[in-house]
Design goal:
Blueprint lengths: L1 H19 L8 H5 L3 E2 L9 E3 L9 E4 L2 E4 L15 E3 L6 E9 L4 E8 L13 E5 L35 E8 L2 E6 L2 E7 L3 H8 L7 H4 L7 E4 L6 E10 L1
Antiparallel strand pairs: 1-13, 2-5, 3-4, 4-13, 5-12, 6-9, 6-13, 7-8, 7-12, 9-10, 10-11
Length: 242
């Protein structure tokens, strides 16, 4: 009898937890009070556009309450379709949280402080938080190219990443140049922009010859998502400014 009562209580708690689980792309009352806003409403691409464009690229769609980028028509997996996108507003000091899910072998990225330069790709002058299927992506040989890393500069702990097909959550905090990446609840990367240490990171990376980096990262900019020619999903895109 006692065992039955315990099982009944556990079942009731599970039902309660499921019923109160927050729906994707929504804000709780506490989040609203704390100043969070949604950058994606779960229904359409309001507020988003192509980098160096005015409309959304054709290889983005809404799928299962998420923004989905997929291989463009006439392209092979891994061939970007120039479908990188930006949110319409610039940000300076903020905390950004995004859920992402990679397909098998997928590669993508999340960008901040994007400086939009005509004719140049999104990564021309912007730090990148790597999005990757760590197990099977071809770009998985270098530690700083794995998911959650400051791409080609500082490696994130690969043990914090969930496999392809599962949702990951990345939180990026930027305040007066001090930046951190927290992946699935674990802080994995910290650095500070516009410092000698940052300049050294750039000089030891592929970006050392990029004018956008040698001129200096912008003090503010757009939030961006990359089309790298693979299928990737993004949802629960939320931000609060400081």
């Amino acid at each position: 009898m006692k065992k039955q009562i315990i099982l009944t209580i556990i079942s009731a708690l599970l039902i309660i937890n499921i019923s109160v689980a927050q729906k994707p792309n929504t804000l709780s009352d506490k989040e609203k009070k704390d100043g969070w806003v949604l950058l994606f409403n779960g229904k359409d691409f309001t507020g988003w556009r192509q980098c160096n464009g005015t409309a959304m690229p054709k290889n983005w769609a809404i799928d299962d309450n998420a923004m989905k980028v997929f291989t463009g028509e006439g392209k092979e997996p891994g061939q970007g379709a120039n479908g990188d996108i930006l949110y319409e507003k610039k940000f300076k000091n903020f905390e950004l949280t995004i859920d992402w899910k990679a397909s098998k072998m997928a590669n993508s990225g999340i960008f901040f402080n994007v400086r939009e330069v005509p004719g140049k790709p999104i990564y021309y002058a912007s730090p990148e938080i790597q999005v990757l299927d760590n197990a099977d992506a071809t770009d998985n040989k270098i530690p700083s190219h794995l998911a959650g890393s400051l791409y080609d500069m500082i490696a994130a702990d690969p043990k914090t990443v969930k496999p392809a097909g599962e949702w990951n959550t990345i939180v990026v905090k930027v305040q007066n140049g001090k930046v951190s990446h927290t992946q699935n609840g674990v802080k994995v990367v910290e650095y500070e922009l516009w410092t000698p240490a940052w300049d050294a990171l750039v000089q030891n990376s592929k970006f050392k010859t990029f004018p956008g980096f040698t001129e200096g990262i912008s003090k503010e900019g757009f939030i961006g998502l990359q089309d790298h020619g693979y299928t990737v999903w993004f949802r629960n895109i939320k931000i609060r400014e400081f």
